Amino acid sequence: xxxxxxxxxxxxxxxxxxxxxxxxxxxxxxxxxxxxxxxxxxxxxxxxxxxxxxxxxxxxxxxxxxxxxxxxxxxxxxxxxxxxxxxxxxxxxxxxxxxxxxxxxxxxxxxxxxxxxxxxxxxxxxxxxxxxxxxxxxxxxxxxxxxxxxxxxxxxxxxxxxxxxxxxxxxxxxxxxxxxxxxxxxxxxxxxxxxxxxxxxxxxxxxxxxxxxxxxxxxxxxxxxxxxxxxxxxxxxxxxxxxxxxxxxxxxxxxxxxxxxxxxxxxxxxxxxxxxxxxxxxxxxxxxxxxxxxxxxxxxxxxxxxxxxxxxxxxxxxxxxxxxxxxxxxxxxxxxxxxxxxxxxxxxxxxxxxxxxxxxxxxxxxxxxxxxxxxxxxxxxxxxxxxxxxxxxxxxxxxxxxxxxxxxxxxxxxxxxxxx
Length: 420
Prior knowledge:
Layout: E1 8-12, E2 17-23, E3 29-31, E4 41-42, E5 44-48, E6 54-56, H1 57-65, E7 70-74, E8 88-91, E9 94-97, H2 98-117, E10 123-128, H3 137-153, E11 158-163, H4 164-173, E12 180-187, E13 192-199, E14 213-219, H5 223-234, H6 254-259, H7 271-279, H8 287-298, H9 302-319, E15 323-324, E16 337-338, H10 340-364, E17 372-376, H11 383-392, E18 397-400, H12 406-417
Parallel strand pairs: 1-10, 10-11, 12-17, 17-18
Antiparallel strand pairs: 1-2, 2-3, 2-4, 5-6, 5-7, 8-9, 12-13, 13-14, 15-16
Helix pairs in contact: 2-3, 4-12, 5-9, 5-10, 10-11
């Protein structure tokens, strides 16, 4: 008697958001709701000081934004392949390794998925970017191994990997009728990945699609980089970034870069960093800016400021209109906006690199162009990016896919045909 094939959980562990999916026993795709009715779940944990509990996803973000005492950790994927993964960080009255925090998140993903399907899940197909780390094959391999170790410690016994843009292509393939040459553009929180692939629904059940993959490229630029650049452009000048101070010198910028980078914000609150920031008052000619900087540091508003920038970025991308960055918690007199003009100015260089990487992928495939450009990933809705891609590839049909569930769905299809 033939043994039933185990369910394989496709896990898109993202820098900003994570998603999971599987192909059920009837061959149907299930993208699993991880966050109420939403498929995407913020890749975030909050360690509450008073209750000594750990909150995940949207609950973690909400607890932090509500001012609950504790520690928020986000963008952990950005640490993959670095020495920081094995370092310890203070959480309440104890220290915990960043790696063990990733394991906790994987355990929570597994728990939520098992609760949804009503059975244990032991097989996983893990998504990975084309490059965890640019131009360093050894660290890139270390990052993949770290991802696999975290999944193993969370309780998965059988693990395989698939490139995230290829997974997105496999999801798109379920909706094409004829053979199509597609450039898959996967703009995540930490990376932008590209694949040129031949898609054909008749080959969707083939396990090895390497012959159809014509090229892959990737660059370590994503949504969290866009958040950082917009934060530096719209909010940090109100705290003294690029302020020309005493002697005509610009105020040192390291504190502003830490405050604008999701996974480095906690560094701005260390005793050493706080002392450095406090002593900067002699560099300022406008002490209002310095007081505002110190308020942001002493009240630990870094994540709130960056979350407000992110929310304005999303609102502007959806509507096309300017969106106010809410800074009421810091200074009610401030109302910076994110609009098409300052977004284009702040992101121009980074978006140019992303588009160039996309064009390089088409060139590496030996093609003059592609039939379709398929957009997926949480940051793929950015209007300035879509406009730049349209300009660069005017002949291709531009298709906007499932921004958050597409990669997970593709990983599920890949897992269903993988020989575990």
